[in-house]
Amino acid sequence: MPSAPAGTLYRGREGMWSWVAHRVTGVLIFFFLLVHVLDTSLVRVSPEAYNAVIGTYKNPIMGLGEAGLVAAIVFHAFNGIRLMLVDFWSKGTRYHRVMLWVVMGLFVVTMAGFLPRHLMHVFGGE
Amino acid sequence: MTTTQTQAAAQLPIENPGEAYKRRKTTRGNFELYSWVFMRASGVVLLVLIFVHLFVNLVAGEGITAIDFGFVAGKWASPFWQVIDLVMLWLAMLHGTNGMRTIVNDYAERDGLRMWLKIALYTAFVVVTVLGTLVIFTFDPCPADAPANLLPSFCTA
Ligand code: HEM
Ligand code: HEM
């Protein structure tokens, strides 16, 4: 076994950073999901309990957190498709870097569609 | 290599001449291969389910501001959303837990630490998945003792 910590031996460029980002976003979504199922389960306690907890989420800080979560998912999802194309498509390895730019492009477009509307809900009052 | 050894090797009978070539003859199973395939198959399905989930809950209508008990009850009164959420829950928990297992294997080098992290991980998986499943199946959109203004409108009908 190598004595250097595993995972730090990767050297490279886009390939390495997209791998790190895929890993970080995956972990983030996983922990969100644990909390998310727990708070959703409050619907079985009482309508008041659920509304009280969800009510504490309805503020600008959580609103920005939701935007960050959506960004993490959109990246992880599109990059995940890219990983599958690298694995299964015969030309996948040749175009993996081009496809990362496609992923970033789709990411920007998706977020540009989502953010204004979400931020309007979060900051728009009411 | 000495001549005698080479001759000995050449004279060894082939055990089963018609057998297909196998690169790996150990029998530890194909678990890692199946998990690799599962990560990809579940990923495609999750992309659709989660994007729909986020669109319906965050973008459509009043977005996040509309979410309360009445909103959830309105969705889970229909078997369609119950099934969608059930499949999403199971696939996301399996996909996420399996991904976390890979990460624990990568970074936790001490056997004891790795074992405890995995026990914690699998415990979280069981608790959250069972809880989420029970919540979907036992949900009552119109609990009898709740104030009517918190319930979806179809409860009073
Ligand atoms: C900020 C973004 C999100 C909001 C506002 C939100 C909101 C909700 C709401 C209101 C419910 C109740 C039932 C329903 O509406 O279908 C729910 C359930 C659920 N959500 Fe989300 N969600 C979000 C993100 C996510 C993400 C990213 C995932 C997947 C990783 C997810 C997975 C689930 C699952 C599995 C359930 C069912 C829980 C159970 O079985 O008890 N949600 N969510
Ligand atoms: C939205 C659709 C999703 C797609 C298309 C997707 C796709 C993928 C793919 C292809 C992998 C690579 C597996 C490998 O390298 O063998 C992966 C890893 C992973 N995913 Fe997802 N995934 C999605 C949603 C999720 C969700 C909801 C979670 C959390 C609950 C999650 C957590 C993880 C984790 C923790 C890893 C391991 C990362 C690593 O080993 O570096 N993913 N995903």
TrEMBL record, chain A:
Keyword Oxidoreductase set for record: no
GO terms, molecular function: electron transfer activity; metal ion binding
GO cellular component labels: membrane
Gene3D superfamilies for the chain: Fumarate reductase/succinate dehydrogenase, transmembrane subunit
Cofactor(s) this protein cannot do without: heme
Compartments (UniProt record): Membrane
Alphabetical list of InterPro entries matching this protein: SdhC_prok, SQR/QFR_C/D, Succ_DH_cytb556, SuccDH_FuR_B_TM-su
One BP term from GO: tricarboxylic acid cycle
Record-linked Pfam families: Sdh_cyt
Binding positions (heme): H76
SUPFAM superfamilies noted in UniProt: Fumarate reductase respiratory complex transmembrane subunits
Keyword Transmembrane helix: yes
Membrane-spanning segments: 20-38, 67-86, 98-116
Keyword annotations: Heme, Iron, Membrane, Metal-binding, Transmembrane, Transmembrane helix
Cofactor binding note of this UniProt entry: The heme is bound between the two transmembrane subunits.
PANTHER family, alphabetized: SUCCINATE DEHYDROGENASE 2 MEMBRANE SUBUNIT SDHC, SUCCINATE DEHYDROGENASE HYDROPHOBIC MEMBRANE ANCHOR SUBUNIT
Family of this protein: Belongs to the cytochrome b560 family.
Protein name: Succinate dehydrogenase, cytochrome b556 subunit
Source organism: Cellulomonas aerilata
